[in-house]
Design brief:
Strand order of the largest sheet of chain A: 1-2-3-4-5
Helix content of chain A: 10-25%
Bound molecules: zinc ion
Number of helices of chain B: 6
Oligomer: heterodimer
Shape of chain B: elongated
Helix content of chain B: 40-55%
Largest interface: A-B, 26 and 23 residues
Radius of gyration of chain A: 17 Å
Largest sheet of chain B: 5 strands, mixed
Strand order of the largest sheet of chain B: 3-4-2-1-5
Radius of gyration of chain B: 25 Å
Distance between the termini of chain A: 22 Å
Chain lengths: 205, 188
């Protein structure tokens, strides 16, 4: 999605009503972000919008990219720097070591990179303990890195990597994780934002 | 009420390729990345580049995959080197012009153009000039559509010295000092 270097429009301050609605839609997409929302979107600072090619809007606070959205509809997707700050707030899958260099060159993420020994796909199970906030589902990864709920087609998902601590990509699933396990082949994420891509390199300070 | 404790992680990013250092191996600047990390974060360097870790990493790949990865890394390194050479060439051809302009009789301003070719942010540099020379300095648009810094007073020599001192990638030969005399209706 951002394979090339991006040209960006000047930053534009957003009206507070729009800021509020973005905050709400961020929380409804990522309920696990609830305990941290005031740190992600501090009440006092104002959210700015930067327009990128292909009708993508990037949202920025104090020179820090937070999340982007295509066509002013669809899901808000966090910038990888935000994922690195709050990794516990986003559902994950994991690719094996061999797939890393393909994903980092902008290739489509294919099922075998997830179903192999080094890969991780969700394994639904009841989690013990309390959810992170009231009214928020109790979800998360197990010790092996398997998310506790199957993820649906169209959902944003963070891509972790075997042997690495930090996430390497994020994108929308073009196949639900249950199907990925059953079929074992085909594309899983097509247009990802990945480490080192144009969005990563874009300077919005 | 107590302030909630921040839980945001503060991730270290590579000062050379900008990725988390554990991903430096996938860029084309591995050698430089390693040098940077060893100097800045020796503990992390040990963790990421120790022989045991590297061995474990390659062991999980098939021989064929290892060969392909090595070939890929070589290609990337060559590409990065070519890009760096091109950049160096561009720098060699870029000129910073420091111009002394007479505004009124014995009142001067100094304009500085061409800084952006060296990756400098004009606003920041203007601020530095203002502080360093205790004078007004601002970024203004030029008729040709670019931007330049205009500093109050005749500080051409000082600016040249300051630039050479602070930004080591600017070669002295690439700075040009010129003078723009106000045309006066001279008698005779
Ligand atoms: Zn690096």
């Amino acid at each position: 999605m951002f394979k090339k270097d991006l040209g960006a429009s000047p930053k534009q301050k957003l009206k507070s009503s729009i800021q509020r609605s973005l905050r709400n839609s961020l929380l409804s997409t990522y309920p696990l972000l609830t305990p941290h929302i005031d740190e992600v979107l501090p009440k006092k600072s104002s959210l700015e919008q930067v327009k990128l090619p292909d009708r993508v809007s990037l949202y920025v606070i104090e020179g820090q990219p937070l999340f982007y959205q295509q066509d002013n509809a669809g899901f808000l997707v966090p910038h990888l720097r935000l994922v690195h700050r709050f990794p516990q707030a986003f559902p994950t899958i994991r690719i094996d070591r061999g797939a890393i260099r393909f994903v980092l060159s902008g290739a489509t993420l294919m099922a075998p990179g997830l179903t192999s020994k080094g890969g991780r796909l969700p394994e639904p199970k009841e989690r013990e303990g309390e959810p992170v906030a009231e009214g928020v589902p109790n979800e998360g990864p197990d010790e092996e890195g398997r998310w506790s709920r199957e993820l649906e087609k169209g959902e944003p998902v963070v891509v972790m990597a075997e042997g690495k601590e930090e996430a390497c990509a994020i994108g929308l699933l073009v196949m639900g994780t249950k199907d990925v396990k059953e079929k074992g082949k085909g594309p899983v994420i097509e247009e990802a934002h990945f480490l080192g891509d144009g969005l990563w390199r874009l300077n919005v300070e | 009420m107590a302030e909630p404790v921040s839980v945001a992680r503060n991730v270290i990013y590579c000062g050379v390729c900008t990725l988390p250092p554990e991903y430096c191996e996938y860029g084309g600047t591995v050698k430089k990345c390693q040098e940077w990390l060893e100097k800045k974060h020796p503990n992390m360097y040990e963790r990421i580049w120790s022989p045991e870790v590297l061995e474990a990493a390659t062991a999980s790949l098939s021989l064929e995959a290892q060969e392909r990865a090595a070939k890929d890394a070589k290609k990337k390194a060559a590409k990065a080197e070519a890009a760096e050479q091109k950049h160096a060439q561009q720098l060699a051809n870029s000129v910073i012009t420091i111009k002394r302009i007479e505004r009124n009789k014995r009142k001067y301003v100094t304009s500085v153009s061409g800084l952006e070719a060296f990756g400098l942010e004009l606003k920041k540099v203007a601020k530095d000039f203002g502080k360093k020379f205790a004078t007004g300095a601002s970024v203004t648009k030029t008729p040709s559509g670019g931007e330049e810094i205009v500093v109050q007073g005749d500080v051409s020599g000082e600016i040249e010295e300051f630039l050479l001192e602070k930004y080591k990638d600017i070669p002295e030969d690439n700075i040009e000092l010129v003078e723009d005399k106000k045309k006066k209706a001279s008698a005779g």
